[in-house]
Structure formats: C-alpha cells, structure tokens
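A note from the maintainers: we've had questions about how concatenated examples are separated. There is no special marker in the raw files; a new sequence line simply starts the next protein. For clarity in this README we add a label.
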Amino acid sequence: MPESSTCPKCQSLYAYPTGTSMMCPECGHEWIPNEVPEPEEATQESSVVKDANGVVLQDGDTVIIMKDLPVKGASKAIKAGTKVKNIKLTNGDHNIDCKVDGFGAMALKSIFVRKSG
C-alpha cells in the first residue's frame, strides 16, 4: 500500500480517496497526500477529541452512545441512546474513560458517541 494511504493521525491502513484528498474512516481525519503537516500542528490536533458529529469534547461532558456496542464478557450490549455522564478524556484508541450504568467503568471510542446538550 502506498504511504499516502496511511492516515498521518492514527496510522490506519484503511484511508480512501475523496477526490482531491484522503479520508480516514477510523478517526475521521482528512488530508491532502502531497502536503506534510508540520510536527507542531500534528501534536496540537491529536489532543483534541471530537464526537461522531465533529463536536469537540471536554472532561466532564455528557455524551449519548449512538449505536449498540457489544461488551466483551457481558451477556448484553450497551444500547444506543444510553447517556453517559462525566466523561474523562484520555490518549489512545479508546479515548473516553467513563462509568456506564449497568456495566461499570470502561473505555469508549469517541466516534461512537455524540455530545449531549
């Protein structure tokens, strides 16, 4: 696979062309393959966590889960529409730490939630 199809933000191999740019389906990052971002710009952007609609999330926000999420080791999934209060943002693939009623503490991906409010 050519290097330009690897996402510069999350290193996903599943990026696809959108005409003049490339788009990452995993983190939502869009870039022009011929342009290399400055290192300063890349570190600032990586600390910003956005929900599925592109709204910036902050510690303490309330979010709503957008689709049923299976939980490893649990007999049932977290249902879409479940409200999660007082989230904590972290670095990594699962960038939200929270406590979900009926399931306990867990980490979620921000692409599966939307900000409530």
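[label: protein 2]
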Amino acid sequence: MLSSIQNYHERLVMECIQDSLAGTDTLADPDYVDDLACIALNTLPPRYVRHPVDFASHLGDEERRTIQAQVAEAVGQAIETIARRHAGR
C-alpha cells in the first residue's frame, strides 16, 4: 500500500552526499553514507510524494533553489557532526 510513497528529500540527499564525497574514500563506506543520510534527513522536513517528477514539476525556481540549499546545508551539517564524533573518540 505505501510502496508508492516516498520522501522527496531522500533522492536529493543521496545525490548531494555523492557530490560532496566524490573523489574520497568515504564514498565507498556504505555505513558512513547511510549515517550521513539519516542525520541529514532527520534535519529536513519530510515531503512525501507518490510521483517525484510530478512534485518537482510544480516547484517554482525559487522553491527548488531553497530545497537544494536546505539539502546541501543538512548534508554539510551531517558531515560535520560525524567528523566531531570521530574526533571525540
């Protein structure tokens, strides 16, 4: 029943993580990537959709930029959070 429902931010967060970690060894660590995604997604408001393409087509340019900026900030904060945790060990 809920298999067609997804959080719109999930794909954006994963794309941002891949872009942020491109060229690093950490991208190959699935546990690290999953931790980043969880931390970032937990800071963003959920946006549940059935069809991401339909939702995206209704976004204005300003709202699209706002969402992208929020996702980038959430991923950046997630990277910093994990770095602080590792530094404290």
